[in-house]
Design a protein that fits this description.
Structural class: alpha+beta
Distance between the termini: 28 Å
Radius of gyration: 31 Å
Strand order of the largest sheet: 1-5-6
Shape: globular
Largest sheet: 3 strands, antiparallel
Number of strands: 19
């Protein structure tokens, strides 16, 4: 051990420490309101590969135990949704991190080389360290700090990472330091942005943190950062820096030391407060050495930021001087006003400015253009091009004159919107920066071509609504809704003014399963309900083929749309499923599935097997038997509706108490926050009409009670800021 040490050591084995650290990260996410980093399946990219590089050596891969799995393949299986997404997540922005490979190398260094002890030196432990100028932040000579400094100075991978950070720092350092000074915090907190994002304002993490300061949405909202379909101010360099400075200043007031304030910035102040109360110390370094004191990533976070600040104060010692790195030139910009729906690429073309630079200066406009309604909107341009922008507003207005707006209704897709406005689906996506129909939230205003005629509906577009039977009371009617990738339980319940539990009962849904695009749901609404006024696209009963799910009529209608009919075949002696299948161009598996038998099943002579055959090719068949009874049909047929203060709700029949359908507590956005923890509840849940009739508690009430108990030992918390 170098130098004189203050004795601080963890007694637990190194492997156990890491396992506990991983648990702590999950606890941090739960207590602080922020998701836990998915370190168990971190995506990696080949060194030097860019985001658009699809070459074999550049394939992004998830590391899962000993496996390295192609990220694109897993993404396809997940349906384009992130790892751990619940049924209440319609769309989550994809991560953006051009430095993913370098950060993965940094994490590997931390796992392999940072010491398993919390060892503090009273003085710099090596001669070269004594000559270094120190930053405004508190410097404690921990073994981790020394290890980071060696990594940034001596390791080629560390040198590459710090050089990239210092290079990008040149563009923003002056403006960021000025804001930090204005707010009244140390200017060297600029190195928090270095560790969080490498000074990339467009970075998005796997857990939803965004921008140069990696704000989670909830914390950003508290500190005045707007987020909508068109705008995300977490990506705005100036506004997010003011927010980060204010947040860090508030944390410093709360905890009294910058080390504890930075720990709270990383892990969430709720977790840090809980750790202080649980282990009875307000010393960051003491919490680092106590088992389960702080997440391991947080114990690394402070030494990493201090190391980056030391590098920034001693660039010659780390070979990152301007002559060695060639930092990006500082950018001085001015703000001009542009009309609604202005394309940033178009402005760049008019002003002869690098489109990538202009997009970065205006990263808050996440769709590549200003919102199509309202305006004018501020747009940042290099100051030397400000004069060239004189009169630009009129030219841009004429360009956007060919655009109109469209307000998204629940149930819309890019394809259906394109048909309604008479445009191509690709044009709708391009105009609005859309990658996925799941982004189409109710009420979003889109830019669409003006003056186009709606495309006529194709023949046969009448949806087949195969649903359980329900009894519709007087004063109500049945409407139908076709789900999309943007459909969520909460969105449905709010749009129709009914409970999620009622929708489950009316449609015999699994309350824990995701509603899949294309499912047709039935909803009992009051006669006064109007879909257009409620912002939801519905079908009336006269606009669908309404059949009882699983009935003979349902099967016949469904097969008819595929040019098939349902017939029977009377088996002969020696027939097998394979032989029968060959007669009707069906596989052995098809016959087994249709008749609900194993593939090894041997039909008896004279037994009638159901087959699906092409229309006009029914020779050798007989009338098919009626389909068997439908599981849960009794529940659907018996479900009735009653009017309550909150709208229409279901009343499950009493004779079904104890069945899985009746006992299943509906998953909600609150109860499904932790992936893998939303299972069937076996104690019966109570409907609104049954409240107070028993002592059983619903999952939601238990969650509220749990939150109430937690608040007794720790304060309510803001969502935390993601680990770097």
């Amino acid at each position: 051990m170098r130098g004189t040490l203050l004795s601080r050591r963890r007694s637990r084995p190194w492997a156990l420490q890491r396992a506990i650290g991983a648990v702590c990260v999950c606890l941090a996410a739960g207590l602080a309101g922020a998701p836990a980093p998915a370190s168990a399946a971190a995506p990696t990219r080949a060194p030097g590969a860019s985001e658009g590089d699809d070459s074999e050596g550049a394939v992004v891969r998830d590391v899962v135990g000993p496996l390295r799995i192609a990220w694109a393949g897993r993404d396809t299986v997940r349906g384009g949704r992130p790892d751990g997404a619940t049924i209440h997540d319609a769309h989550v922005s994809r991560p953006v991190d051009p430095e993913a490979g370098a950060r993965a190398e940094l994490e590997l260094f931390e796992r392999q080389h940072l010491p398993p002890t919390v060892a503090l030196h009273r003085a710099p432990p090596e001669p070269w360290l004594k000559a270094l100028a120190l930053p405004e932040l508190p410097v404690r000579w921990s073994e981790s700090l020394v290890a980071y400094l060696h990594y940034f100075r001596d390791d080629p991978k560390g040198q590459s990472l710090i050089r990239g950070w210092v290079k990008r720092m040149g563009r923003y350092e002056g403006r960021l330091r000025a804001i930090l000074k204005e707010v009244g915090v140390p200017e060297d907190l600029v190195f928090v942005a270095m560790a969080e994002s490498g000074f990339n304002p467009r970075r998005r993490s796997r857990v939803g943190a965004a921008g140069m300061w990696q704000f989670m949405e909830g914390t950003g909202r508290v500190y005045g950062l707007e987020r909508s379909f068109w705008i995300d101010e977490r990506l705005d360099v100036e506004r997010s820096t003011y927010a980060a400075a204010a947040y860090l200043k508030d944390l410093r007031v709360r905890f009294g030391s910058w080390e504890m304030a930075l720990a709270a910035y990383n892990a969430g102040y709720g977790l840090v407060m809980t750790s202080v109360g649980r282990y009875n110390t307000n010393n960051f370094w003491s919490l680092c050495e106590i088992e389960s004191g702080l997440p391991e990533a947080t114990t690394h976070y402070i030494p990493k930021i201090v190391a980056a600040a030391v590098v920034g104060r001693n660039r010659g010692a780390f070979a990152v001087t301007p002559g060695e790195v060639s930092p990006l030139a500082a950018i001085d910009y001015a703000e001009i006003e542009v009309p609604a729906a202005t394309s940033i690429a178009s402005v760049a073309k008019h002003l002869e400015v690098d489109p990538a630079l202009l997009a970065e200066l205006n990263a808050r406009y996440v769709r590549g253009r200003t919102p199509p309604d309202g305006g004018p909107y501020p747009l940042r341009v290099p100051r030397e091009r400000e004069r060239a922008a004189t009169g630009l507003g009129a030219r841009l207005s004429s360009e956007s004159a060919g655009l109109s707006t469209y307000v998204v209704r629940l149930g819309d897709t890019t394809a259906s919107i394109a048909r309604r406005v008479g445009a191509s689906e690709s044009a709708i996506k391009q105009l609005n920066g859309l990658q996925d129909s799941a982004e189409l939230g109710q009420g979003v205003v889109l830019a669409v071509p003006r003056g186009k005629s709606a495309s006529p509906a194709a023949a046969g577009d009448r949806p087949l609504a195969a649903v359980p039977a329900v009894l519709v009371p007087a004063g109500h009617r049945l409407v139908f809704f076709e789900s999309t990738r943007a459909t969520t339980p909460r969105g449905l319940a709010e749009a129709f003014g009914v409970s999620w539990e009622a929708l489950i009962a009316w449609n015999d849904l699994d309350p824990q399963a995701r509603i899949q695009p294309g499912q047709i749901l039935q909803v009992i609404v009051a006669d006064r309900f109007r879909g257009e006024a409620s912002g939801v696209r519905v079908y009336e009963s006269t606009e669908v083929d309404h059949v009882i799910r699983g009935s003979r009529e349902h099967l016949d209608r469904s097969l008819g749309r595929r040019g098939l009919v349902r017939r029977g075949y009377k088996a002969h002696s020696g027939d097998t499923l394979e032989k029968i299948g060959k007669k009707f161009d069906l596989s052995e598996g098809d016959i087994a599935r249709i008749n609900g038998v194993p593939r090894s099943y041997s039909p008896k002579s004279g037994e009638v097997m159901v087959v699906y055959v092409a229309e006009g090719k029914t020779r050798g068949t007989v009338a098919a038997p009626d389909p068997g009874p439908i599981a849960g049909a009794e529940y659907g047929a018996s479900a009735t509706a009653s009017e309550t203060a909150d709208g229409v709700e279901v009343e499950p029949p009493a004779d079904l108490a104890g069945t899985p359908a009746a006992e299943a507590a509906a998953s909600t956005a609150d109860t499904a926050k932790v992936p893998g923890q939303q299972g069937w509840r076996r104690s019966p849940s109570k409907s609104k009409g049954e409240k107070g009739k028993g002592k059983g508690k619903s999952r939601d009430s238990k969650a509220k009670e749990s939150k109430s108990k937690a608040s007794a030992s720790s304060e309510p918390t803001l969502p935390g800021v993601e680990d770097p």
